[in-house]
Design goal:
The protein has helices spanning 2-13, 18-27, 84-88, 110-119, 122-147, 150-160, 164-167, 170-177, 181-195, and strands at residues 29-33, 38-40, 48-54, 56-63, 68-76, 79-80, 94-99, 103-108. With 196 residues, the protein is of the alpha+beta class. The strands form two sheets. The chain has a four-stranded antiparallel sheet. Strands 2-7-4-5 form a four-stranded antiparallel sheet. Helix 8 (170-177) crosses helix 9.
Amino acid sequence: MEKEQYLSKLSSYQKLSVGLSAYLNYAMHQTNFSKMEKISLESMEPDSFYYLAKGNGRLFVYDAENEQEITILFFQAQDMLPELKSISKYVKGQLFMQFLKDSELISIPNNHTKNIHKLFHESATLIAEINAELLVKIIIVSTGLKIQDADQRLHKLLESFPTVFSQTAVKDVASYLGIHSSTLSAMRNKSKKHTR
């Protein structure tokens, strides 16, 4: 089932040739992660075409100077993830992925990725499309931090990820929203009072 969803997701970016689709189907590798498991992106294999088949995740950077985790993005089932190891060298601090519940990640191992690029030139366009989608997500979040107030940012997050508070700590949601955790708690309490 996950294999079909994975290939369907990749096909949503561009039509896959029969050969590329068959190779991806053959080469895909599944990795399972436990609830709340954190992995350093530097320690990951340099795979590509990452797909979160099941579960949810949080991409964050650890700021050693201030001893805090700064949430960058949340990922949900059926999301493509960036080529995690390759971006970690450009970030100040250490990048981590935390899986918010038991999760399944599908990827293509690096040795197969090299073959895919040699055999199927359309793979470069596919990777560019995936990366463009992820860049747009980051731009939307960054823009929201600049032009929306905290209530608007929270509302937008809850629209896209309604179960976020049942799966991650308030401090992690607060860092994503760019506010202090006590401010977020007060906003949630105020919202609960208005709905009663």
